[in-house]
Structures are given as structure tokens and as C-alpha cells.
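Dig into what follows:

_____
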Amino acid sequence: MKFSDLLKDLLSEYKLTQAQLSRETGIPKTTISGWLNAGRLPDYHAIRTLCMFFEISADELLQLKQK
């Protein structure tokens, strides 16, 4: 599973839009859109922010370990 697919699943599970995730985390909407649509990957700071927000480990977020 690609990172974009995992993030889409998390957004769906938490019933969030890209704009809501942006407001809640401080990550720009354009950055989130790049992850979802352009195949970009998050940097260390964004990984940490997403892990804290979704309450998952970096292993889970990066698909090194299944949820």
C-alpha cells in the first residue's frame, strides 16, 4: 500500500477532509494534497505530527508494521 492510500484511509476513518487535517495539524493543505495526489512523501517533522495526531506509530504510518 502506498503512503497516499494509507493517508486516504486514515482521513476516511477519522471522517476528515484535507482542510480539516490541515487546520488540526498545521500542515499546509498544499502539502497534504501533494502526498495524496503527487506521490510526495512526508518529511520527519510531518511524520511525527501525523503520528501524534492519528495516535499511531511511525512504523504503522510508514507501513513497516501493520496496524
The chain has a mean pLDDT of 93. The CA atoms of residues 18 and 52 lie 17 Å apart. The domain at 3-61 is CATH 1.10.260.40 (434 Repressor (Amino-terminal Domain)).
